[in-house]
């Protein structure tokens, strides 16, 4: 029988009390109860329905500067596990970079919970809406995933912070196919069922696939092109940028922002933030140290302002935590690129010779420090001539420098979309359509 959430909360308190009695310097117990459902579909039919109910407690404890962590999945032998964890801590070496965890008592904003998502019994209808919308645009086949999740979190810290947070979300990813060569991809994400529109994702995927088939396929030459990026495409880039803004990535020399605080790293059009906002499917009210979530400007009108910090990295960088603690290191929660003032039609009108790219995968860095990377456009890719779509193309690769790409951003739409999907956008991102000039295109084959 599963533990009641009240019992799980009591267990976090017991973990802290027991670890302290064993001699631990600091302890955080972070318990999560998650309830997840997944509906997978292919060939315009539902294939698999999965349900998971998981309970776990993440434990981090220190002995001076010795730091150890574990995850508990069973709770009938907590004391024995903590005793073993303390033995490991005693045998470990000091972590010279450890600066401690957050201290104090905090007040938190109210959690954002939509009971309609929690009570949703028959989610298959949302899949059919997406499929029907894609087929109505001329697609012949579809496949994808509908994912529904809700979560309760309990945190107890020996240093004072404690709290309870709840959240939920629903998201759909769909690919539509006219044939083997012509496809499109759409996503829809929300933490409010009333705002969830799976048909928008289906329509987008179907439209892209149909346009890809409609326009003649042409080979293009390698070179520099002006590019209009779909939010789904640029969201993958923003997801990577959010991750490399972690102070840990900087310390590991895995970030192009190393040594660039206060320097220009992007066009003045670019303002990028981290904020697990109430509208984000990743909304939360405190980080893994119990520090309240806040909005952090990472890039302000092209100037790099700060890395994302927990308490330890903030001390090393002689600054304050940004409230981005993961269990061990700072993480991005939700990356936002501020909107611009373009309408999409206006953005296209600014392109004389360029491309419209809708999705990507296999984003890889040749050097994280310099920012040299490549990514492979997937699904519909279109040729723009004098502001209009004139053809489709394929077998492309963007081979660029991430800071140079940011520096060449010229336009952003007022419209933004929240994007997240398992392959390329690892945490939620809010992205507008983006116009970037002089982007280097090479062949992928």
> Overall mean pLDDT score?
96
Helices and strands, in N-to-C order? HEEEHHHEEEHEHHEEEHEHEEEEEEHEE
Return the structural class: alpha+beta
Helix content: 10-25%
Number of helices: 10
Instruction: Count the domains.
Output: 2
Measured distance between first and last alpha carbons: 54 Å
- The beta-strand count equals 19
Radius of gyration: 23 Å
Q: What percentage of the residues does DSSP assign to strands (E)?
A: 35-45%
Shape: globular
Oligomeric grouping of the chains? single chain
List low-pLDDT spans.
Answer: none
Largest sheet: 13 strands, mixed
Give the key terms.
single chain, 10 helices, alpha+beta, 2 domains, 13-stranded mixed β-sheet, PmbA/TldD fold, 445 residues
Question: Concise description?
Answer:
With 445 residues, this protein is of the alpha+beta class. 23% of the residues lie in helices and 38% in strands. A hairpin with a 4-residue loop joins strand 13 and strand 14 (372-377).
Please, could you describe this protein's structure?
The structure is a single chain. With 445 residues, the protein is an alpha+beta fold. It folds into 2 domains: 5-213, 2-Layer Sandwich (PmbA/TldD fold), CATH 3.30.2290; 215-443, no CATH class. The chain is built from 10 helices and 19 strands. The chain has helices spanning 5-21, 78-91, 115-118, 124-136, 198-214, 231-244, 247-251, 311-316, 344-349, 402-407; strands spanning 26-42, 45-63, 66-72, 141-157, 162-177, 183-190, 223-229, 272-274, 296-300, 303-304, 335-337, 353-357, 360-367, 372-377, 381-385, 388-392, 396-401, 409-421, 425-443. The strands form 2 sheets. Strands 7, 8, 9, 10, 11, 12, 13, 14, 15, 16, 17, 18 and 19 form a 13-stranded mixed sheet that branches. A 6-stranded antiparallel sheet has the order 3-2-1-4-5-6. Strand 2 (45-63) and strand 3 form a beta hairpin. Helix 4 runs parallel beside helix 5. The longest helix is centred in the N-terminal third of the chain and has 17 residues, at 5-21. It is globular and about 70 Å long. The protein starts with a helix and ends with a strand. The model has no long low-confidence stretch (mean pLDDT 96).
């Amino acid at each position: 029988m599963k533990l009641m959430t009240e019992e799980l909360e009591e267990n976090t308190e017991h973990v802290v009390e027991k670890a302290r009695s064993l001699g631990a310097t600091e302890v955080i117990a972070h318990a999560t109860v998650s309830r997840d459902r997944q509906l997978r579909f292919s060939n315009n039919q539902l294939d698999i329905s999965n349900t998971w109910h998981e309970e776990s407690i993440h434990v981090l404890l220190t002995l001076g500067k010795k730091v150890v962590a574990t995850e508990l999945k069973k709770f009938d032998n907590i004391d024995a596990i903590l005793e073993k964890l303390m033995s490991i801590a005693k045998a470990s070496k000091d972590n010279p970079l450890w600066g401690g965890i957050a201290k104090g008592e905090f007040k938190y904003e109210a959690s954002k919970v939509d009971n309609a998502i929690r009570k949703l019994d028959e989610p298959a209808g949302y899949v059919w809406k997406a499929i029907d919308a894609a087929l109505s645009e001329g697609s012949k086949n579809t496949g994808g995933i509908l994912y529904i999740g809700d979560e309760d979190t309990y945190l107890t810290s020996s240093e004072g912070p404690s709290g309870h947070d709840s959240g939920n979300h629903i998201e759909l990813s769909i690919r539509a196919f006219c044939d083997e060569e012509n496809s499109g991809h759409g996503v829809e994400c929300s933490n409010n069922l009333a705002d969830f529109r799976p048909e928008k994702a289906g329509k987008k995927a179907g439209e892209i696939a149909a346009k890809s088939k409609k326009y003649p396929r042409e080979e293009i030459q390698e070179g520099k092109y002006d590019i209009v990026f779909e939010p789904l495409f640029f969201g993958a880039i923003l997801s990577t940028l959010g991750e490399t803004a972690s102070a840990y990535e900087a310390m590991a020399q895995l970030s192009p922002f190393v040594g660039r605080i206060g320097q220009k790293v992007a066009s003045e059009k670019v303002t990028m933030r981290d904020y697990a906002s109430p509208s984000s499917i990743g909304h939360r009210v405190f980080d893994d140290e119990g520090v309240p979530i806040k909005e952090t400007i990472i890039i302000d009108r092209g100037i790099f302002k700060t890395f994302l910090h927990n308490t330890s990295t903030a001390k090393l960088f002689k600054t304050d935590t940004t409230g981005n603690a993961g269990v061990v290191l700072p993480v991005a929660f939700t990356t936002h690129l501020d909107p611009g003032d373009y309408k999409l039609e206006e953005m296209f009108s600014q392109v004389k010779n360029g491309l419209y790219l809708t999705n990507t995968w296999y984003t890889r860095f040749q050097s994280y420090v310099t920012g040299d990377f490549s990514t492979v456009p997937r699904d519909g890719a279109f040729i723009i001539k004098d502001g209009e779509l004139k053809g489709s193309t394929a077998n492309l690769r963007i081979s660029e420098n991430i800071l140079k790409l940011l520096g060449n951003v010229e336009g952003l739409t007022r419209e933004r979309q929240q994007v997240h999907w398992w392959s390329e956008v690892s945490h939620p991102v809010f992205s507008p359509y983006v116009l970037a000039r002089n982007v280097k295109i090479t062949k992928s084959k």
